[in-house]
Amino acid sequence: MEANCAIEKLEGFTLAIAEMMVTVFENLYAISLEIKHPNDIVYQGKKIGGILTETKLQGKIVKYVVIGIRYQYQSKTVFSRNR
Predict the structure, then answer these.
(1) Residue 56 lies in a domain
(2) Range of the domain at 20
């Protein structure tokens, strides 16, 4: 996304990040994650992470976006690359 864009370009942005995370985990660890709209990542019915976005606006122009991604899961065997 380019800097100084219109706020309308952010529609669906958080969901797009969640979709990218799901794809990465499927590709790296061969597991299926789900997205609980709009920003939670769920594994086997339990929330394991989420995405938060914060924007700084000047009028209707986005000056910057801060993206926070949290992941929390205690089982090391579930996400092992050696599966």
Answers:
(1) yes
(2) 5-71
The residues pairing with 50 across neighbouring beta strands, listed in sequence order, are 40, 70
- Residue 76: inside a domain: no
Query: Cα 43 from chain centroid?
Result: 14
Any bridge partners for residue 46, and if so which?
A: 43
CA distances in angstroms from 3 to 17, 56, 74, listed in the order given? 18, 11, 37
Q: What is the pLDDT along the chain (83 residues), one digit of tens a residue?
A: 567 889 888 888 999 999 999 999 899 989 899 999 888 999 989 899 999 999 999 998 999 999 999 988 666 555 666 55
